[in-house]
Known about the structure:
It is a single chain. The protein is of the alpha+beta class. It folds into 3 domains: 10-144, no CATH class; 181-250, Orthogonal Bundle (Helix Hairpins); 259-400, 2-Layer Sandwich (Heat Shock Protein 90), CATH 3.30.565.10. The protein has helices at 2-6, 10-29, 40-58, 65-85, 92-97, 99-104, 109-134, 140-143, 146-216, 223-250, 263-279, 299-316, 347-352, 368-378; strands at residues 259-262, 285-288, 294-297, 323-330, 333-340, 382-388, 392-400. The strands form 2 sheets. Strands 2-4-5-7-6 form a 5-stranded mixed β-sheet, covered by helices on one side. A two-stranded antiparallel sheet has the order 1-3. A hairpin with a 3-residue loop joins β6 and β7. Mean pLDDT is 88; it is low at 1-6. The chain crosses the membrane at residues 12-30, 42-59, 66-84, 90-107, 112-130, 150-168.
Amino acid sequence: MNTLDTHINKKLYYSTVIIVITIMIMGLLIDNPRFGKLEMGFISHSVLVVVLSVCLLLYPKHVTHVCRAIIMIVASVYFYTLFFLYPDTWSNFIFLCFIPAISILFFDSKLFYFSLILNSLSITLTFSYIALVDQGHLYPYIKRDLIGNVINFVGSQVIIYFIFYLSYGRMKRQQLYYEQIKQSERLKTAGQLAAAVAHEIRNPLTVVNGFLQLYEKDSSLSEGIKKHFSLMINELNTAEQVISQLLSIAKPNKDHETETVNVKAVLQSVTDLLHSYGLLHDNKIEFNMVEECYIAANKIEFKQLLINIIKNAIEASGVGESVMITAGRKKDFVEIKVIDCGHGMSEAEVESLGTPFYSLKSKGTGLGMMICYNIATKYKGTIDFQSKKGEGTTVTICFPAKHL
Ligand code: ADP
Ligand code: MG
């Protein structure tokens, strides 16, 4: 809860504190039966007023858990001291009931539970003292109906708890909303950055592509070399498409046509493409698919989804471990499974997938899964993760099958 409650409105805070201090000084000086007598009671009352005032005035400069705890403890000591110094002022008992309410103002859940427990213990001791030692001599209004007073005290703590519970929940939701706005702002900046970078990369790509196309037509070059050129041109085209995809996060592009995609052919080309990437750490990609199946999607986008997920599986795998890919029809769906025996993920990590910039890799962008989920949603598909820390991950990708 740091961002919200550290930005406390100082003007409002200081005005409230000045009013509180004025009331405390009034309590000390006006019609006080102990006023003017140099005895322990009046001195401790005065000292506590000064200490509590200083704590409250210094708090905005030290917004920490420790400071809040100190204020709560000093406030508790102050109210209990008043209760014992002025037994005739029965309304002091009301303050004792509402001590934990002070901690609600700090929106610190640990502090609230701490003050609730501390206050319950203190009131138990106080009531025991009144019942056993004082025996209603100084506090007849409590002793006369001890049980009733205990019930009232418990009731007041329950009310305070509900006030805290409801306002804290609301505050948390507001905090979440604030975080989301901040994140979408960040995403917008990333989108603008991506657009700028993509623009700069596109130009050299177009130049290289143009020259390669020229050489491809050169009759003095052998067919073997020309084959490499067409491969390079293909790869450059893919790179260009990937850049467009990245741009689509910032600026959703409606131009991509939905076509009939041959899943087996796309998976084959993706595994071929990633074969050399896997070899870096001696990871093999085992691809197993018998039947032909088709889905309705954009081929480039579907390819990008598979590349992201299979790349993640390779990156999670240890040296020499293989990544298994299976695919087939399951009722009206085409189901693709990407299985790795890598480092896996905890439940919390799986839940964070798809959050922009969530990455545990030193050079990760944390955008891969977000793009994948966007593509899957666009074509009514789903991506499901089953993972266990240290054991590996199975990603199940499901798309509605297209009947030819
Ligand atoms: P990036 O790959 O750039 O880090 P992604 O969105 O593709 O971003 O993935 C986000 C995070 O999810 C990764 O950093 C990784 O920690 C985790 N992750 C994704 N796939 C797997 C997997 N198969 N096994 C283990 N962790 C994974
Ligand atoms: Mg990735």
